[in-house]
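Task: complex structure prediction.
Instruction: return structure tokens for all chains below.
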Amino acid sequence: MTSKLSHVRIVGAGLIGTSIALALKSAGIHISLADSDPRAQSLARDILGDSKVGDSNEDVLEVEDLCIIATPPEALTQVIKAEIQRNPELRVMDVSSIKTKPLLDVSKSALSTSRFAPTHPMAGREVSGPESARGDLFTGRPWVLVREGVDQDLLAHAEEVIAICGGVLMSRSALDHDRAVAQVSHLPQIVASLLARTLESADRSDLELAGAGLRDTTRLADSDPVLWGQIIASNADAIRPLLISLQNDLVSLLEGLDESEFAQAFIAGGGQGRARIPGKHGGQPREYFNVTIVIEDKPGQLAAIIESCAQIEVNIEDLLIEHTPGQDTGLITLSFLPSDGPTVMAHLHHEGWKVHPSR
Amino acid sequence: MTSKLSHVRIVGAGLIGTSIALALKSAGIHISLADSDPRAQSLARDILGDSKVGDSNEDVLEVEDLCIIATPPEALTQVIKAEIQRNPELRVMDVSSIKTKPLLDVSKSALSTSRFAPTHPMAGREVSGPESARGDLFTGRPWVLVREGVDQDLLAHAEEVIAICGGVLMSRSALDHDRAVAQVSHLPQIVASLLARTLESADRSDLELAGAGLRDTTRLADSDPVLWGQIIASNADAIRPLLISLQNDLVSLLEGLDESEFAQAFIAGGGQGRARIPGKHGGQPREYFNVTIVIEDKPGQLAAIIESCAQIEVNIEDLLIEHTPGQDTGLITLSFLPSDGPTVMAHLHHEGWKVHPSR
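Output:
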């Protein structure tokens, strides 16, 4: 029987490392957190409220059950080299966005691959650094674990970390993982960046007509270039066939661009592809009943609407606020379970709100 | 002096036509709304609460000041042909997503181009049909008007429609408009569809790892294929150079894909392009102070938080709810003006909320 985790060392105090640290600390596990960047190190120390974070003189006196490496992927070999000198019994769990490349790196290192558990929490934000960390970043999100060749004690520890963080454990081979993330994560990143790059040479007056479509489709383009440069290069073999397929599709489109039937079939194919994406957290897509309310854009209006909903004890599943600067009105769209919809509509209308159903 | 609008005929009871009808009707203008599709016609009639909608026997007795054509772009010539027989004094305002092609179509029709005001409200939704219409769909949104060669009375009527709908009038030439929307609207649509099309052949198990990035970047792929087929084909000349530029960028990326420095510069360029997009409604980008609160996922929690904010009279600029099914907690992110941030943080903390700053 594997012992429970009591001391975990985390190398890399970025978004992911600090978020794991927050979750493990809440579960009563002793954490030491180290980062080569003094700013990140000191910020993470404040966030964790723990003066021992990164104090390597003290750390060296304790032996951790598990070392989680949460640095950018290219630093992995170097970190392992340093860590194995600190602790010859080193067992490592990584959390990087690719899985075949780190396995290859480890196979050339002094660490046995049986002491390396490749994992990947499918959670992230366009923002980075310890200041963006959240103890619940991983709650309900897929967390991939590559089991092949990993020793049982280390597997048990990795599973414990994933469970404490609230992740949804998904076992994949390293190759299957890398093919999957090339499709669902790396390709969207590249496509968003490709689109955003065209804006560099656009006229300022043209950009004045930009709406939500352009903003949403380019959101990922704000991601960290250093991290993403490494991710893309490391997973180039899995990304390349997807980009070539996209390139071929683009060539066909350019040929048929001025035929509306061709363009129509092109757009329809995108809708069919998108329909294959599972819902918000890997489950089935959820259908909500949406209600749009026109309000005066001033403090207190939102509170009053929410209070109206609380009166009839319905749960607001989602909420969207849209302002119209220069206007005195705003729009609030509330989402409810379909069964609550008609009741809410009737109640809000009765309470005097300018309420409209929406899809 | 141009007389005020009293009777407007709208052809096309889709999202845009019905939304304009709702706004004009609220302003006391008499509307007749016609659609070749009986389902849309009947639904629009119910939505407007007006039994005269589409009753062409009655309509023919009245002469409208203005006819707004809100059909898919390819129907324009045919609609003009029919309408000019009803009313030889016909003055038309269109609302389609392209402007050079309709002008060309009209120049070949029986209608003088001086009696045709090309306009484009920059508002839309992935959903369509009269059931998605909102009288405030255009509030605060750019609404392009092409003035060249249009007679003064018609210009005044078009401006009155835009003002009543709450649109932000922007004058552009037809060519400038089409180049701008190719960049800010048509290219994002095509890129989202290109990405979504790759999902058709993806493994189901790979898609289980999909997150918000894939969903946001492909959101536009759900758009109406018939409408978008026509838009893309009609604006092919403005879209083509952008697609070729994107294609060249893709070829370069494929060559440098496994070099992390190259990939890093690629991603960085996307961030620089995206930074050029103006804020939510064409103004400067707004910076908010964001506060994240961990709550129990049950009715009343949101109301209590909003009430806490109302106590100190700060305005909530934006709000994001994230559920974690299978967990008892949810996350709420509130956005405030930067000047309100510290006060709100201190107050919510004092009120006992689990509050975290976020970027």
